[in-house]
Amino acid sequence: MREIRESSVPRGSVAFWFLGQNGFLFKTSEGTVVGTDLYLTNSCAATAVNGMDMSRQVPVLIPPEELDVDLFVCTHNHQDHTDPETIERLRHKDTMSFIGPHPSCDVFGRQGIESGRIAPIWPDHMVEIRDVKITGAFALPTDDTDLNHCGFILEFGHAPRIYMTGDTAECELLASAGRHKPAMIISCINGGFKNLSHDQAAMLTAQVKARVAVPCHYDMFADNGANPHQFEAALKLRAPGVRYLAPAHGERVLFD
After folding, report:
1. What is the β-pairing status of strands 151-156 and 162-164?
2. Residues 247/213, Cβ–Cβ less than 8 Å
3. Is residue 231 within 8 Å of 201, Cβ to Cβ?
4. Please, which of 79, 119, 163, 220 could form a disulfide with 182 given CB 3.0 to 4.6 Å?
């Protein structure tokens, strides 16, 4: 966390770090740090059903107690995206703003976040804090336990826009994110539980006309994983010319 806070980001760029599943940390040129879907515990292991292995496969690189972000953002309230244990253990949560669809906002409130620091978001609604703009994008829920999924259009100062799909099933309306002209797409690719498959994610990449594609949601659980190289291969067929980028966990990436 200290490395991230001390990291310098040039104007017109955004730095980001992949922490596993749909968890990312982004840092703007003005120093604002944004966390998305930060799952920093092993809480899902205790909720697994029917003998599924939902123990985390990715090391916790930043314990919740050490997390220091300005915006804590969630796409939906599934536990590996809005994790009550992560939120409960935050030591710096009095300095953060918390953003997500209303079910995630309910989780924030139950974990002691004051209502004045919670900002709900939904498709086509924008939340602007400091030099960050987050616009909700359409996402099709994958089951009836949460019908309020969102994707995000992320704008960090003057850096290129990023489209994060969040968890979503395939739907022609996903291509509507293309009107925001994202330069990068960060997409789930695991194909399990109705999420986009590697091939569907590659087709979406072509539809939104991104120039860089980053896979996610393939690495955290043994029983809900995928091989990201299948996405790389699908891009060659569905979106030739798009750059495939799969950062290692904890690796700093500079995007401009």
Report:
1. antiparallel
2. no
3. yes
4. 163
Give CA–CA dist 101/55, Å, rounded.
26
CB atoms within 10 A of CB 146: 18
H or E stretch at 132: strand 132-137
Q: In whole angstroms, how far apart are CA 71 and each of 34, 38, 97, 115, 182?
A: 5, 11, 5, 15, 21
Question: Cα 226 to chain center, whole Å?
Answer: 17
Closest CA to 22 of 80, 77, 99: 80
**Residue linked to tokens 């996903």:** 174
pLDDT in tens, the chain (256 residues): 999 999 999 999 999 999 999 999 999 999 999 999 999 999 999 987 888 899 999 999 999 999 999 999 999 999 999 999 999 999 999 899 999 999 999 999 999 999 999 999 999 999 999 999 999 999 999 999 999 999 999 999 999 999 999 999 999 999 999 999 999 999 999 998 899 999 999 999 999 999 999 999 999 999 999 999 999 999 999 999 999 999 999 999 999 9
Here the tokens at position 190 are: 């695991």
Residues 97, 99, 105, CA angle at the centre, nearest 5°? 110
Amino acid identity, residue 226?
A
What's the CA gap between 227 and 232, in Å, rounded?
9
- Sorted by where each starts, the structural domains of the chain and their CATH numbers stand as 2-245 (3.60.15.10)
Q: What angle do CA 15, 227, 186 make, to 5 degrees?
A: 30
Are 75 and 37 spatial neighbours (Cβ–Cβ below 8 Å)? Answer: yes
Distance separating alpha carbons of residues 88 and 184, to the nearest angstrom:
32
3-state secondary structure of 246: coil
